[in-house]
From TrEMBL, chains A, B:
It comes from Allocoprobacillus halotolerans. InterPro entries: Alpha/beta_knot_MTases, rRNA_Methyltransferase, SpoU_MeTrfase, tRNA_m1G_MTases_N. This is TrmH family RNA methyltransferase. It holds the Pfam family SpoU_methylase. One of its GO terms (biological process) is methylation. SUPFAM superfamilies: alpha/beta knot. GO terms for molecular function: methyltransferase activity. It comes from the Bacteria. Keywords: Methyltransferase, Transferase. Residues 93-229 form the tRNA/rRNA methyltransferase SpoU type domain. The keyword Transport does not apply.
């Protein structure tokens, strides 16, 4: 086993929780699971064992592999999987232009899943979503999503032009609080440093998230989280309980 | 100059942008500014020079100090300041119980400032807000805020009991979409791993942010950002332009 490099044909999860997510969502792509000999006490281990047995996936106990791939962390399990291609559904999309930060990408994937968004478009150049750092930051949310790369926004637009586009821009025309979403739609956000450039004002209804002049802009994952919270409001505002108080 | 250690009586900003924020917001606390000899081309340097002149703050050119305090980064300026105590205003508060992640803390400060919240209560044990990593992640937003530590939530509560409390909890009683804020209020959020424990159900109106069961919880800074976006809605929903399109 080698450390992951951008574009490798296989990658791996680091940790029990994302490994379970991988086994639940993408068992067909898993080659094997490597565990540390001290995993026995971990309450996630029986879950891993059951899932591996069900899908005929081998489990190897191999401390040195774990220590090599995750030298700094308390990591008990690694799920090795073949990277895969996904297909976009004609549902609401999140479009990220040139996202470059692995931690941000993982956080955004987790937030998307939290608000029920499963289709992610990434305009290249961009971070490699199968980097173990992205997977870890996503806490396994990545395995629930359809994430598809495009070489340019225009390539994506040609395929999905028949929908509503909402580019998020500091110079956007409409205050987010005043938007009533028309489905299906694509929420488009620029990258960490530059945002979207002016030509996105030509696509659909450009939106700004109002904030004080004391800051230049919200950070990218925060802006996306707020956008998803607002745009999915209708789906969630009637919910009466999130978790039962046991 | 030594690397900052928790609780030191002085700390420092890393970078031109947060140094300017420091000089603008807290000039009375600045002892000196250290710059790298290659700062001349940086367009922020004249701003630093003007502010230092105005407030009689010395500027030292000293490359080795910069390289020592910021070995990995392209850092051109460091603002050395005495740490200070702030006072809470009887306005809306954000209360964070045991926040432990420096990057998260900085992001939350920046988001608070973005939505017009300037009063931050931190329940110990917690991250040291004057750590240069927090300052950097806040992009200088810290210097706009009144951040005050308390030993326990009860200490804080005794001083500010005459207001509305909104603890954010997975088991919260009320969906955030259905809350009409009563001012002044305190939004209370737990830490990255544990959230708030059940006894917070006894304070004010507990709130949950609805999300799918595919994730355990939103991350802390995301939950706070969404809370601030929703609670400050009235202030921002009439805004017609964020930035002029030049």
């Amino acid at each position: 086993m080698k450390l992951y490099k951008k574009g490798d044909a296989s990658s791996y999860t680091l940790g029990v929780f994302p490994t379970i997510e991988l086994l639940k969502q993408r068992p067909q792509n898993v080659k094997r699971v490597v565990v540390h000999s001290s995993i026995e006490q971990n309450k996630g281990y029986p879950v891993i064992q059951t899932l591996c047995q069900k899908h005929h996936i081998p489990i190897d106990i191999h401390d040195r592999t774990i220590e090599k791939l995750s030298p700094k962390n308390n990591c008990y399990a690694i799920g090795v999987f073949e990277t895969y291609q996904s297909c976009l559904q004609n549902d609401n999309h999140v479009v990220l232009e040139h996202p470059m930060d692995m931690g941000n990408m993982g956080t955004m994937m987790r937030t998307m899943l939290g608000f029920g968004y499963k289709n992610l478009v990434i305009i290249k150049p961009a971070v490699d979503i199968f980097d173990p750092k992205v997977i870890r930051a996503s806490m396994g949310a990545i395995f629930h999503l359809n994430a598809v790369y495009y070489d340019s926004f225009e390539d994506y637009y040609q395929q999905f032009s028949n929908r509503k586009f909402y580019p998020f821009m500091l110079e956007g025309a409409t205050n987010i609080h005043q938007v009533l979403p028309e489905k299906p739609y694509s929420l488009i956000l620029g990258n960490e440093s530059h945002g979207l450039d002016d030509h996105y004002l030509n696509y659909g209804q450009s939106i700004f998230i109002p904030h004080s002049e004391d800051i230049d802009s919200l950070n990218l994952s925060m802006a996306l989280g707020i956008a998803l919270f607002h745009f999915s409001k209708e789906q969630w505002e009637g919910k009466e309980v999130l978790k039962e108080n046991i």
